[in-house]
Amino acid sequence: MNHEFDAIRTLFQQRVPFKQSFTSIANGDDASVHCIPQGMELVISTDAAVAGIHWPLDTPLHIAGARAVHASLSDLAAMGAKPAWIWLSVLAENNDALIAMSHGIVESCLTHHIELAGGDTVRSPNNAINVTVGGLVPKGSAMTRTSAQQGDEVWLLGDLGLSTAGLKQWQSGDINGKFVPHFQTIQPLYPQGITLREMGIQSCLDISDGLLQDANHLCHGSDLGFSIELTNIQSLDSYQQLLPHFGAEESLNMVLAGGEDYALLFTANPSLHNQLEVLGAHKLGHCIKGHHVQLTHDDQVIDYDVKGFDHFA
Ligand code: ADP
Ligand code: MG
User: Fold this and answer.
1) Cys-Cys crosslink for 163: which of 26, 260, 295, 313, Cβ 3.0 to 4.6 Å?
2) Which domain holds residue 129?
3) CATH code where residue 171 lies
């Protein structure tokens, strides 16, 4: 296969034939056209993933493909939106790379019932995937980084540090390491995001660059601070899983500052406490005056200097 249009048709278009009922012009034209169902708003996010930056060069490319789609879906999770479409740019070094990436991308679209509404397929010196995702949310109800309120509690849904641990194991040659699947397989928590939004949660983000770094985005966005209690972190299932393998210091570092967790960090009125516990969320702390995240141990403020992952470093 060496013809661009054959490749697009057989690797992508034919394999994801699903079309949303509110799409009026689907994949195959110069652009796609979509209706927005009444009472809904369109939520859009775009993300690039580049070989050697977002995945180690020896990662199987079908895994890179699925990760790229799932990472985008995670942004919709943070907004409380239901995924509907993706638009895809695939930059591939060669045919084999294109085929491998298509497998993971196609499988993810089929699993999550997402329409592949358009794309671009390009040969490139580096493998890379850009996914733009579109979803729907009831008007005015999208969760944001600017809606945390004084009096709110700070909560987490999902794992922290396990992906970083898996990446570390993979890079050290321990390719069957216990945590490797957590790096390779991103679970986009959009069903949970939708549930949170339906419960009335207004402020949420997905953690992609480390808990502390991303928590600061919520603080800045909402013009307040967070106080996060270390004993709450230490009681997280993720931390407990890491502890026997990496020890206290490294496990803590991974949980607080590891990247690519795709967990949801949100704030909630204390009246939702019991409901959130039933959902499997973990309370980390509460909102305070200020502009950043402070860490406490048994309510005493402690110094903790870690930086999250910087994709531009
Ligand atoms: P254009 O001529 O407008 O640049 P292309 O030749 O790049 O369009 O693509 C032809 C059609 O195939 C378009 O509808 C485009 O959205 C779609 N397409 C291209 N690459 C992909 C892909 N990797 N996955 C899904 N659709 C694709
Ligand atoms: Mg065209």
Assistant:
1) 260
2) 4-138
3) 3.90.650.10
